[in-house]
Amino acid sequence: MEQNQNLNSSNPSVALIVGVTGMAGFSLAQALNSHHSHTWKIHGVARRPLPTWFPPSLLHNFINFDALNSTDTLAKLSPISHEVTHVFWVAFQLYDTEELNVAKNSAMLRNVLDVLTKASPSHLRHVTLQTGTKHYMGPIFDPSLAGKLVHHEPPFMEDSSCLPYPNFYYALEDLGASYSPALTFSVHRSSIIVGASSRSVYNALLSLAVYAAICKHQKLPFHYPGTRYTWEHFCDMTDASVLAQQQIWAALSDKAKNQAFNCTNGDVFTWKSLWKVLCEVFEVQFVEFDDEIAKGFDLVEMMKEKGGVWDEIVEKHGLFKTKLEEITCFDALKIVMNFDFQHVCSMNKSREFGFHGFADTFKSIRMWVERLRDMKIIP
């Protein structure tokens, strides 16, 4: 892996991870700590206090504030604003419409960058922006646009034009680029992220783990909640560790500056094949897809009544206290599992620029399930 800024421990790069308690942020903190040829001082930011499963030793400093509040952002970031060299932006807040997502998420990023760039002196050099494949599909989670979106044809490629819909990913890219040439930036378009956290809005693996735990607890069949098309066709995922590796590589590689990169594991799977792996790791019986059952099965509706069941499971197994509605994303999962196209990205550009990180998705799933168990988030 290309590196070109080997600094000794007396002159480290200083990272600010905004969104440090999410899947991507947690993996970034771990990856920066264990980086083989570069010394990092790490500040972590989140809206809420650190959860008990997050090792405080991963961070030099944890800062608790809401980046939407410009006054609070200034007050909390000012003491370290002169030393931060790299921002890793892996945070977002979600609202009912994409127009609101654009306004709020842009304001958060602007508030943080304004404090850091106006420091005297400012040492900020690079901004890492995490976005995703919504870049190629449009705002798929905005209910007002349901059925109206036209997506790019897969495999998704980085040189695809912006779609004619509001998209906070586009807004973040434009905002990052607006600080050039004073700052460089890189954009990382992940697929479905697989990692460990109780604080990520879109955590497909944790949602499926909760679903499986409830099925096992109540002796219910673990039905696939999508369509035959997605059951049989290809999809891809992004291991949070691979995403962290790519983000650090781009932050340190001159060649990767001011570029956007897809980030997936580098392989593909069918949901049928993945479902067999999930059944094995969650110890539930595999159920073949049935068109008749699928017509009448709605996981979102089913889970609306299962909050109390999850509370029982948390109590029974002595788990980290969570509420079902706070750690799952069944609405988003339903949309993904009802796609009428193959959700697949090209990794060619990333490889051509020098990043060769990858993961075996099935091994990744098994590893992260064990991590979630070790962290006492799932049984």
Keywords:
379 residues; 16 helices; alpha/beta; 7-stranded parallel beta sheet
Describe the model.
The chain has 16 helices and eleven strands. The protein is α/β, with parallel strands linked by helices. Strand 1, helix 1 and strand 2 form a beta-alpha-beta unit. It is globular, with a radius of gyration of 20 Å. The protein starts with 12 loop residues before the first strand and ends in a 5-residue tail after the last helix.
Number of helices: 16
Order of helices and strands: EHEEHEHEHHEEHHEEHEEHHHHHHHH
Biggest sheet overview: 7 strands, parallel
Oligomer: single chain
- Determine Rg (CA atoms, Å): 20 Å
Question: What portion of residues is helical?
Answer: 40-55%
The overall average pLDDT, rounded, is 96
Order of strands in the sheet with the most strands?
Answer: 3-2-1-4-5-6-10
Structural class: alpha/beta
Distance between the termini: 37 Å
Detail the poorly predicted runs: 1-9
DSSP strand tally: 11
Overall outline: globular
Portion in strands:
5-15%
Can you summarize this structure?
The chain has 379 residues and is of the alpha/beta class. It is built from 16 helices and eleven strands. The protein has helices at residues 23-33, 70-77, 98-117, 134-137, 168-178, 204-218, 228-232, 240-252, 271-282, 291-296, 299-303, 307-317, 324-327, 330-336, 348-353, 361-374; strands at residues 13-18, 40-46, 61-64, 86-89, 126-132, 184-190, 192-194, 234-235, 237-239, 259-263, 269-270.
